Amino acid sequence: MAFISVSDEVANKSFTYVENKFITKYLPVLNAVAVKVYLYSLYLFQSGRPNSSVEELAEKLNLTVEDVKAHFEALEELELVSVLSASPFEVKILDAENVSGTPKKFKPEKYADFTKAVQSIIKGRMISTNEFREYFVLLEEYGFEQTALIMIISYCVNLKGDNIRLPYIKKVAKNFAEEGVTTTKKVDEKLSAFTSSTPALLNIFKSSGITKQPDIDDDKLYKKWTGELGFEDKAIIACAKNFKIKTVEKLDTNLEELYKNKKFDVKEIEDFCKNKNAVYSATLDIAKALGVYMQNSAPYIETYVNVWCDLGFNLNCLKKIADYCFKNGRKSFEDMHEFVSKLYDGGIVSDGSVDEYIEKTKIRDNFIKTILSACGLTRKVIDFDRISYEKWKSWNFSDEMILEAARLSENKLNPVSYINGILSAWKNEGKFTPDAVSSSVRPKGQTTKADIERHYYNLRHTAEDNAEKALNSALADSEYANIRRQLNELAISLAFAEVKDSNEAEIISKQIKKLETDENKRLKELCIDKSDFIPRYSCTICNDTGYTKDGSPCECMKKFITTL
User: Fold this and answer.
1) Nearest-angstrom CA–CA distance, 41 and 77
2) Secondary structure of the chain: what % helix, strand, coil (to 5)?
3) Spatial separation of the C-alpha atoms in residues 329 and 211, rounded to whole Å
4) Virtual torsion, Cα 362, 367, 371, 373, nearest 10 deg
5) Cβ distance 391 to 422 under 8 Å?
6) pLDDT tens digits along 189-212
7) What does pLDDT average to over the chain?
8) How far from chain centre, in Å, is Cα 477?
9) d(Cα 297, Cα 293) in Å, to the nearest integer?
10) Are 326 and 318 in contact (CB under 8 A)?
11) Long-range contacts: 122-130, Cβ < 8 Å, 24+?
12) Which of 540, 561, 360, 361 is nearest to 460 (CA)?
């Protein structure tokens, strides 16, 4: 029978998991109360109570808060935990380093001079036996010469002060060891090299408002900035100032960004930052003009504004376009993107050409308003009216002839469709002047091409209008409208990602599939059939055009003619 086993009841209960390496290495040598503190900390975290306080832990173990903190400090010296904050008191449980075996025993007399030297350097506190043991590990397992490690400890104390903690010293020492710097000569050379860059780092930190003292890690980054990336000190300072940087990590990130965009000169950096700030500000103005709330501007800048700028539109021009879009019912970035793309396709990019286009559009819309009024309509001008007007002009009809057709369509069912039928008939009959149509009367009982075109136009318009109404009904629901908006945005993002980054495209595709599932679910809740968004034509053969795919008259047209 096994030395240890458990009952079924125990096997089915919850447990607190402890690393084997804690049991094999630390349990035999740790103070019993420290073990209790460590195990109860594990229990609190694994049972879903990480926000418990040190006071609660002390009460449960019948200890004082000061005793608990002292035991955590002892655990920290062995790198079993890390004290993150003194007030409020916070700790992080760490992974033990060695898989098995008790902490190695060292002969104190072997390191007598070393321990005296280290204690004389760290004057702010008494060094514990466990801490000295960790230094001995560094000497024996990492191969440091005693003088070399003393130099590293002295450097750390000079940088951080007498109350410096063991984990920082070990981190620095291990960084040295990773670079093969373990002898007194090599440590001296590395510290000398760091000392030579310290004035430059101090100047950069002072100029940018970084309050910390430079350390070895900062020296590594400085050598990267000036060596690998090729920045001069003045360029690094310009980056820090223009990006309003307060941390070394942020400075490194922004220098990487400048390197990626090939901006190395101070003026180039200043211009880059100004433009970046200008784009951010312009994006806010565009969103305000469109009536769009942005929780995070970054996706809008990347997906839309930067793309528009790459097409050649300047920021002031984009603001004017946003204002125009809002006034004409285009109240989202995707709607504006569609309009901007239309302008670009037409070669309308410069400030002047955009102004001219907008002015012409205003004049056109005013005339279309006159047309609608002439045929008895008082509604606003919509895109369908604009498309119809452009089509009529492409048929070589003057505004006078279009207005005449509008007068003839007054009080008719679907008057705009009626105008289309009249003008289509006049076009096929070659009548482009008022005189040519003044005596044009259809004999009773005779079917004209205009009648046929008007009939099919009305059928198509009714089907398409019903589909549009169904979609608008769904969009009236804010939840569905939000899903639809996200799908439109992701569709645009996917188009760019498919060109630039296949991995990003795959991620976006998955997001789209998820949203499509949400879309179908919401439509079901609204009792709306998605198929209603597609026009339901009365004839599925010709889709209410009157003609089959090969151009022959459809059977439905023949039936229609016989009914007249």
Assistant:
1) 17
2) 65, 0, 30
3) 51
4) 80
5) no
6) 888 877 767 778 888 888 777 877
7) 83
8) 26
9) 9
10) no
11) 122/153, 122/157, 122/162, 122/164, 123/162, 124/161, 124/162, 124/163, 124/164, 125/162, 125/163, 128/74, 128/77, 130/74, 130/77, 130/78
12) 540
Q: Which two tokens stand for residue 429?
A: 């009959």
* Mean pLDDT for the stretch of residues 43-59: 83
Round to whole Å and give the CA distance between 116 and 132. 11
SS3 83: strand
The closest alpha carbon to 233, from 209, 255, 253, belongs to 255
The SS3 of residue 281 is helix
pLDDT tens, position by position, 102-156:
555 566 678 888 999 999 988 878 888 878 888 888 888 888 999 999 999 988 8
> CA-to-CA distance for 343 and 353, rounded, in angstroms?
9
Distance CA 59, CA 537 (A): 77
- pLDDT tens across 172-187, in order? 898 889 889 999 999 8
The residue type of 535 is P
Residue 533 per-residue DSSP state: G
* 8 Å CB contact between 348 and 317: no
Tokens 């903190």 correspond to 69
The residues, ordered by sequence, that sit 6+ positions from 32 with a Cβ below 8 Å of its Cβ are: none
Q: What is the pLDDT of residues 446-464, one digit of tens each?
A: 455 656 777 787 788 888 8
CA distance 420 to 206: 73
Both tokens of 82, joined, read 């890390």
Q: What is the DSSP string of 386-404?
A: HHHHHHHHHTT--HHHHHH
CA dihedral 488, 491, 492, 497 (to 10 degrees): 150
Which residues have CB under 8 Å from 21's CB, separation 6+? 96, 98, 99, 100
Q: What span, in angstroms and rounded, lies between the C-alpha atoms of 400 and 438?
A: 13
At 142, give phi and psi (nearest 5°): -100, -5
Contacts within 8 Å (CB) and 24+ apart, 48-53: 53/88, 53/89
Rounded Cα distance, 182 and 151, in Å = 11
* 421 has a pLDDT exceeding 80: yes
Q: Are 84 and 74 in contact (CB under 8 A)?
A: no
What is the distance between the alpha carbons of residues 362 and 368, in angstroms, rounded to a whole number? 10
Query: What is the DSSP annotation of 200-213?
Result: HHHHHHHHHT--SP
Other beta carbons less than 10 A from residue 204's beta carbon = 24
By CB atoms closer than 10 A (0-12, 13-18, 19+), residue 51 is: exposed
Radius of gyration for the alpha carbons in the chain, expressed in angstroms and rounded? 39
